[in-house]
């Protein structure tokens, strides 16, 4: 959810210590541009996006966003506007949801707060955790009904681009399988369960924009503890590492590198186990107690506002830390096209065609496919 309301507006921040990756084009070049709408202080913006995620089928997400004016003296990692978003979604397989979020900066860019709430009914397929030959090609259909909220605050350390923060998440989730009890491969689960936990985190952000970055890095390390004292039913822990880096190259080429690792410990419900998240791979298709994945993307802005994109990635999950033969992996790749729809913000949007051994899918991309608020 956070990535959706974060994609609505952000200031294009340039690092004063480095020259622009490409010469700026004239402010008015005659091409369609939405910068004027996004520049309105607390402007009201209707938002409608198609959903093309293969795990839930085609659908749409819609809502309204309110944004503040970007700071004129922005630099890499700072000077970003406040964003509030309220919306909902529905897909062809019967999944639907409603959500709201707010991202806000305080104390002269020293404090960032994120608040989000959601209610949803989602229909998915369970393919097992790690390597599971029984469910590989014959998954079990199930329904998730999460209702929850998340609160996060990050404080910037000195005059650096490092942040230290704390996140609290709470959710009540209804779970039901379209299979009778005792079905082979059915995971242990409660029809209604609660999770509540605190997650300390440390991050670094030097991206020139959160929309379509051309340079800079985003790093985050977190370790969450969940348990009864924090409002949940079960005790478990979850650790995660994320790293993204963008490099401008000659001839208006921009290279992006991404890597993620995650692991869960204890009695984590199956639906919060780490899963591979790559274009061309259905959401929650590959789950396990541990995850490692990487993706590479190259964008070529070949003519005026138009770009071509190529990408490839790989992901692996494990059901047992000590059993390599319990792993399950997937390769993905594809290409796409972009148009710079809001030059003041460095916002590109377009379509990606992605594929893996499981499916071929089309994605509408607004900003980076690796969005982080």
Characterization of this structure:
The protein is mainly beta and 373 residues long. It has one domain: membrane protein fhac: a member of the omp85/tpsb transporter family (Porin, Beta Barrel). It has three helices and 16 strands. The chain has helices at 2-6, 35-38, 133-136; strands spanning 43-51, 59-67, 83-91, 96-106, 111-126, 140-156, 162-177, 192-205, 216-226, 236-249, 253-266, 290-303, 306-318, 327-342, 347-356, 360-366. The chain has a 16-stranded antiparallel sheet. Strand 1 (43-51) and strand 2 (59-67) form a beta hairpin. The longest helix has 5 residues, at 2-6. It is globular, with a radius of gyration of 21 Å. It starts with a helix and ends in a 7-residue tail after the last strand. The model is unreliable at 1-26 (pLDDT under 50).
Q: What labels would you give this structure?
A:
373 residues, mainly beta, Porin, 16-stranded antiparallel beta sheet, 16 strands, globular
Could you give a quick summary of the protein structure above?
With 373 residues, this protein is mainly beta.
Instruction: Write down how many β-strands occur, each being a DSSP E stretch of 2 or more residues.
Output: 16
Instruction: Please state the overall shape, judged from the principal axes of the Cα atoms.
Output: globular
CATH fold annotation: Porin
Question: What letter string, H or E per element, gives the SSE order?
Answer: HHEEEEEHEEEEEEEEEEE
**Main sheet strand line-up:** 1-2-3-4-5-6-7-8-9-10-11-12-13-14-15-16
Proportion of residues in extended strands: over 45%
Poorly predicted runs of 5 or more residues = 1-26
The major β-sheet equals: 16 strands, antiparallel
CATH class assignment: Mainly Beta
Query: What is the radius of gyration?
Result: 21 Å
Question: How many domain modules?
Answer: 1
How many angstroms does the end-to-end distance come to? Answer: 11 Å
**What oligomeric assembly is this protein in?**
single chain
- The CATH homologous superfamily is named membrane protein fhac: a member of the omp85/tpsb transporter family
SS-based class: mainly beta
Specify the number of helices. Answer: 3
- Helical coverage, percent range: under 10%
